Amino acid sequence: KKLGVALVGLGMYSTGQLGPALKQTKHCRLSAVVTGSPEKGRQWARDYGFPESSVYGYDTMGRLADNKDVDIVYVVTPPALHARDCIAAAKAGKHVLCEKPMEVSTAQCDVIINACKAAGVKLSIGYRLHFDPFHEELRKLVRSQEFGPFMTMTGGFAFSMQKAQWRAEKALAGGGPLMDLGIYVVQEACMAAGATPVAATATVHPKKRPEFFKDVEESISWTLEFPNGAKCESFTSYDAGRNDFRAEAKGGWFELKPAFNYGGIAGATSRGPLVIAGVNQQALQMDDFALCVLNGQESRVGGAMGRRDMAIVEAIYASAAGGGKRVEVR
Ligand code: NAD
Q1: Domain 3-128+283-299 class?
Q2: What is the ipTM of this complex?
Q3: Where in the chain is the domain with CATH 3.40.50.720?
Q4: What is the model's pTM?
């Protein structure tokens, strides 16, 4: 049986990646959409072959409760709206997939976790790289400890943002590139360390376009410190290009460049280049959650992980606000 998925928010990610990926999934299919534009919704209904009665607005999501064709609701709106949409989904009795960053604060992450718990539905975060085979190589090295612990890590994810959008608005994004892109480097550092960091130190860089980035950072550097003393030096920006991660241990190293793309990831270890066929990360991610629902298992990228990353982000921002002092992750 294929589970029905409702996409909430038909923006770039839904249109460019998730919709097409849902045509490749084995265990789920697109069966409804939630959008502010009924006309766009009807077009999706025609393109994906579901009834026009399965096009909802943000204010009519409650009616999803009556739609037996929807098992999973995938929230793909700007971060500060994730709690609103996840709560509506959970109250309608649907399992919830929530895009990254999970929300804009740990308090809001807790709101989502509690709503899903109260409704008895499963919760997963859109951390697609956990379903990518290049990143699986890193996790294998961490599990086997073949190189020993990765003690020195560096990573950066940045692009030059030209178009005005919610990503530069604190009220919708919760912050700047750290929330949107830096979170990938945070994720990867935790993966490589196999642990949650104990503390962060951070510096916000002077803005080149202050008129564009009024109330969010444009570029930020930070260092995470792990319980065993491992460190990850990290960078993110909306003014530059970077897409890399490297982890070094006594017995070897692991590197990806580009590291965080949907496809076309490349990399090597101290043993040689990684020769791996690409996959559709989003299709694998959605199929994995569908199987969790079908088999009664918890997602490997659950709400606790989304909240953990938000706690790290909060420590990074607190350090930057405090002039770069060391702030413990709570
Ligand atoms: P987008 O701006 O292209 O789409 C956002 C959608 O939300 C639009 O359809 C918009 O109409 C809708 N929306 C509803 N209420 C809104 C409001 N009040 N203000 C603004 N928009 C509103 O953004 P996107 O790039 O598709 O990102 C959406 C989510 O997906 C974000 O959480 C983002 O971080 C995440 N994302 C994840 C990945 C990934 O690789 N996992 C990639 C891109 C985006």
Answers
A1: alpha beta
A2: 0.99
A3: 3-128+283-299
A4: 0.98
